Amino acid sequence: MAGTFGAIDAFLDDYIELPVPCRGGEVRPYRIEDPAAEDGIRIERITSLAARLAAGGTAPESPVLDDDEERDLYRMCLGDQYEPLLAETSWSMFKHVALTVMFWVTMDIETAQKFWEAGLTPGKAPNREARRRVSRGSSASAAASTTQSPASTSGTRAESQRRSKGKGKARS
């Protein structure tokens, strides 16, 4: 017995829209369409090669992609938004947008969103807000986990020394 399927466009995203900070401080929405099937296959092949190299734990002897291949990867990911993004954004933002789209194409929208919101570009430090969030969270939890409660000093030598120091200061 054959099953009935719903229309595939009901659950597949055919574009991703990103609010991209451009030069001059303006944030513009960029709508990036799902790549053509042949480009999607090439993107998958390139990223699976990179994943295999990363899983091996050793750095490749030579770059995985030369400059032209890297540009082609970004052009395949960004489609007709490649040129406008190249002209209107910084290099790190351009690369971040392209890699976000690559995660969308090769994984899913949730993975792309996590990457986008992390604000990470390979070779760059996390953005200031992310660093603050991490440092606040880690310092508070580190302090909570490493700070010990003071032990009772009632009747100990240390307590009597503190008392006598305090009395001496009060008399002066």
Question: What this model shows, in words?
Answer:
By secondary structure, the protein is mainly alpha-helical. The chain is 58% helix and 8% strand. The chain has 7 helices and 2 strands, in the order E-E-H-H-H-H-H-H-H. It has helices spanning 37-56, 67-78, 82-88, 91-106, 109-118, 128-146, 157-171; strands at residues 15-21, 27-33. The chain has a two-stranded antiparallel sheet with strand order 1-2. Residues 138-150 and 152-172 have low confidence and may be disordered.
Question: Could you name the key traits of this structure?
Answer:
mainly alpha
Number of strands: 2
Task: Using the alpha-carbon principal axes, give the shape.
Answer: globular
Q: What structural class do helix, strand and pairing data support?
A: mainly alpha
Radius of gyration: 27 Å
Lateral arrangement of strands in the main beta sheet? 1-2
Helix amount? 55-70%
Q: N- to C-terminal separation?
A: 99 Å
Largest β-sheet summary:
2 strands, antiparallel
Q: Low-confidence stretches at least 5 residues in length (pLDDT < 50)?
A: 138-150, 152-172
Write the layout of secondary structure elements.
Layout: E1 15-21, E2 27-33, H1 37-56, H2 67-78, H3 82-88, H4 91-106, H5 109-118, H6 128-146, H7 157-171
Antiparallel strand pairs: 1-2
Helix pairs in contact: 2-4, 4-5
